[in-house]
Design goal:
Elements: E1 5-9, H1 17-31, E2 36-40, H2 49-64, E3 68-72, H3 76-84, E4 92-94
């Protein structure tokens, strides 16, 4: 049985070398094939293009197994980056709980 929801809390800026540090953690969470993978970004002050690419890849991987990716509580700067990259309507974004 696969988990309904798995949450990963990103605790630093998701850019540069940090993307490669987080890639295995996020990929391992997606490999559990949860119905929903939540990536909590409230503690991540910024992301870059490599991070957006990683999130899009996770999104595609999860869709193949009928799962979905949700980005939780991104700060304004991260929301702007998602908008500039034009993925804010592709990736599901959820407000803080």
């Amino acid at each position: 049985m696969h988990p309904q929801e798995t949450t990963v809390v990103v605790t630093e800026a998701l850019d540069g070398a940090a993307v490669e540090r987080w890639r295995p953690r996020l990929s391992a969470a997606a490999a559990l094939r949860p119905a929903r993978l939540v990536v909590d970004l409230r503690r991540s002050p910024r992301i870059d293009a490599a991070a957006i690419g990683l999130l899009l890849q996770l999104h595609r991987d999860l869709m193949r197994t009928d799962g979905r990716l949700t980005l939780r509580a991104p700060v304004d700067r991260v929301r702007r980056m998602l908008g500039l990259a034009r993925v804010d309507h592709v990736l599901e974004v959820e407000e803080a709980r």
